[in-house]
């Protein structure tokens, strides 16, 4: 399936699921202290008032959390329905419909980029252009925090799985770190969380923090 077809399928699927998604996950940070801790580290690394894009922002709850941490945060999502929900939930913040591989921002204008499970539907061959765009829009010294599900081991750079919305992919942390390095983003920290007892898929969850040279 071509890149634009994958994006169209993903957009339509999330438009259809937007209301349910918001109901299920809008409070998810409350029960995720490690996720909150990584967001705290990200915010402190960027610095108060830093301009940050939450890419794949969904219904906007994490964008609002970033703003509460003192960042100048705005959200971008491919799904118009998600963006509408985000605007309703956080009327004081800016949300836009857009594509991660073509953000339409001048280069070097962001202090931080958050990509929290927003690359999981990006086919492996299409991920490098997305990471290149992350690197392009970050200012020198800017920070990226990217979250994703891990593969079963280093022998599996990527693995696909059946997601409730549409086909998704998980990544070897070392492989993804290497891809970031290819685009001028050097890993500075990682957090690997083991599956919770109630996790259906039993995947490790990973956050990588990286810095643009």
From TrEMBL:
GO terms of biological process kind: methylation
InterPro entries associated with the record: Methyltransf_25, SAM-dependent_MTases_sf
GO molecular function: methyltransferase activity
Entry keyword set: Methyltransferase, Transferase
Domain Methyltransferase residues, every copy: 52-142
Entry coiled-coil feature ranges: none
Official protein name in the record: Class I SAM-dependent methyltransferase
